Each structure stands twice: as structure tokens, then as C-alpha cells.
Fold this protein.
Amino acid sequence: MGDEFLIAALVYVIACLGLVLYLQKQSSKLKTKVDALTVLVKESDRQREVVKRELHELRSGTIGVGRRVVELEKKLSKQFDMLEEASQQDPQAKLYSRAVKMVGLGAGIEELMQECELPKAEAELILRLHRK
């Protein structure tokens, strides 16, 4: 019975050594996978920072463009107002503006000549230019 116990103990020790070697191999594989995942996480963090920085730059640029558009709209509005004011001060321009509106409403040559006091040639020209 002593030999059987010795053989059983030896088998047990060999099995334990095999299990330890197997677990070490599995641990080594897991460590390799963890190292690879760590590298991926670091690269992902780096890319996220790059995208974050680029997004910030885009936002800053968009804000600047928005401000310039607002400035240009103000200037355009101011120029339109000045142009409108200038056309209102010129009596001849008033007549032509009125004639163009009348053409848009369907007026004919005779109406333009009478209402806007235009010569026939000018009335014909306005009619041809602005008829829809």
C-alpha cells in the first residue's frame, strides 16, 4: 500500500505541475491580450484628443465665419437702405420705379406714357425690359 500511495502522490504532483504550466501559459496569453488592448486604448485616446482638437478648431472657425456673415449682412442692409433713399430722392428714378411696378401689374405703353410722363420710346423700352 505504500507504493500505491507513492504512485498516487507522484501522479498528483505531476498533475499539479501540468496544471501550473497550463495556467502559466494561459496567463501569458491573457497578458499578451491585455497588453494589446492597452495599446489600442491608448491609440483610441490619442485619436479622440485629435478629433476633439479638430472639432474645437472647426467651432472657432464657424463662429468667426458667422460673425463675418452678420457684419456683411449689416453692410448690405445699410447699402440697400442708402440705395433706396437715393432712388427716392431722384424724381426721375421715382417715375421709372413706378413705371416698372406698373409693368409688373400689366400696364401698357399708353398707361406708362400718361401716368409716368414718359416718352413713347422709354415706355416701350421699360415694357420690353420688365415684361414677365
Q: What stands out?
A: The mean pLDDT is 88.
